[in-house]
Amino acid sequence: MRLFIFLTFTIIFSGCSIKSIDTQSTQNIQDINIRNQEAYQNHMKEYEYTLNLSKYIGKKSADCSALITTISVKNDDIYSLSDLSLYYSRDGRRSQAIYNLYKSKNQINHHLASPGDLIFFNNTTKSTRGKKSHNITHIGVVKKIKDDGTIVFLHNLKGKNVLSVMNLEYKDFHKVDGNKVNAYIIANCKSSSCLVSNRFSGFGKISKDIAVK
After folding, report:
1. Quick one: pLDDT at residue 22?
2. Average pLDDT of each block of 10 consecutive residues along the chain (213 residues)?
């Protein structure tokens, strides 16, 4: 009888222990699944911030700011239209408003560029080219930086989205060793003052790193 009671107790006790181990194993599996799900969500979040600029090349846009607006509609980290509405100047120029927005957030940088950053230029229009005041009149977005420091950026010229280059190390040169390092930004002007490098006003640093292709 005592042996039966002892064996019964042992089986019951062992059963609880096994159940406890099963519960722990189940919890471990659930923890792994949760971590895997979080990793997947983070991966998808990173993927959402891949900026595909290549698909805009050669396409038509109304102007430079219209191109940037089209890109920003799908990438809120560039700017939101609701935020932008507070930063228009009297001239009503959208490129200036975007610059004002970034400046208010201390996100204007004049030295280091990263893919996905906005790039601003001043006094590039016929009515502003000779002015001394600082008027933001043109905008693009950085696509990549070459090994020699030349920045490749996407912008809109005469209604068409194109890639151009800028290298601040050679501000007064259109070409170096036969390679184009700075594009001209003002129509019908081939002087060094009309190079993008001499109309450059800063980079608009986006709030986080994104992949650009």
Report:
1. 54
2. 42 36 54 55 50 94 94 76 90 96 95 94 95 94 96 97 98 97 96 97 84 88
Interacting residues of 148 by C-beta distance below 8 A, sequence separation 6+:
167, 181
Residue 156 contacts residue 71 (beta carbons within 8 Å) = no
**Which one-letter DSSP state was computed for residue 184?**
B
**pTM for this structure?**
0.77
What values do phi and psi take at 146, rounded to 5? -75, 165
Query: What 3-state DSSP class applies to 39?
Result: helix
Helix (H, G, I), strand (E, B) or coil at 7: helix
- The DSSP symbol for 51 reads B
Residue-level pLDDT at 50: 80
Q: Are 104 and 127 in contact (CB under 8 A)?
A: no
Break the chain into its structural domains and give their ranges. 1-48, 54-204
AA identity, residue 201:
S
* Amino acid residing at 168: L
Residues 123, 131 contacting (CB under 8 angstroms): yes
